[in-house]
Amino acid sequence: MSSRASFRPSPLLIGQCILILFGLGLLYTIPPAQGRILLVPITGQARTGLAAEAVRHGARLVSAGPWTGSLLVDGDRAALSGPLLRHGVLLLSSQAGGCTERFL
After folding, report:
1. Nearest to 72 by CA among 100, 44, 42, 49
2. Taking the CA atoms of the chain, what radius of gyration do you get in angstroms?
3. What share of the chain is helix, strand, coil (3-state, %, to 5)?
4. Hey, what CATH topology would domain 32-98 get?
5. What is the model's pTM?
6. What's phi and psi for 86, nearest 5 deg?
7. Domain ranges in the chain?
8. 97 with 66: CB under 8 angstroms?
9. pLDDT tens per residue across all 104 residues of the chain
10. Cα distances (angstroms) measured from residue 64 to each of 72, 84, 94, 103
11. What is the three-class DSSP state of 104?
12. Structural contact between residues 66 and 5, judged by C-beta atoms closer than 8 angstroms
């Protein structure tokens, strides 16, 4: 008989790997404190007036985002996050949305 040991990862190891992957994904999507931020409306109502709402809170419009209704802006995360989240808009890192130099 051959004694082949089969590798079975422990639930703790699997949980740690999941947390690491989730954490890396979260770090990749968090918008910068200052700079290019992708605004993604999550409701139809949030799309209405998104540009005006962003500008009202200090953002400078850069271009349309890669997804329908999204906008790429230059702004301050602290000034934008509260009002825009209440308006139904997610703030993401511009890299998370695929915004590279070719979109600018």
Report:
1. 100
2. 20
3. 40, 25, 35
4. Alpha-Beta Plaits (3.30.70)
5. 0.72
6. -65, -25
7. 32-98
8. yes
9. 555 667 788 899 889 989 988 888 777 788 889 999 999 999 888 998 899 999 999 999 999 999 889 999 999 999 999 999 999 999 998 875 555 554 44
10. 6, 17, 12, 8
11. coil
12. no
2-23 burial, b for 16+ CB within 10 Å, e for fewer?
A: eeeeeeeeeeeeeeeeeeeeee
At position 52, the amino acid (one-letter code) is A
Alpha-carbon distance of 89 to 54, in angstroms, equals 10
φ, ψ dihedrals at 3, nearest 5°: -100, 90
Taking CA atoms, 70 is separated from 5, 15, 51, in Å, by 52, 34, 9
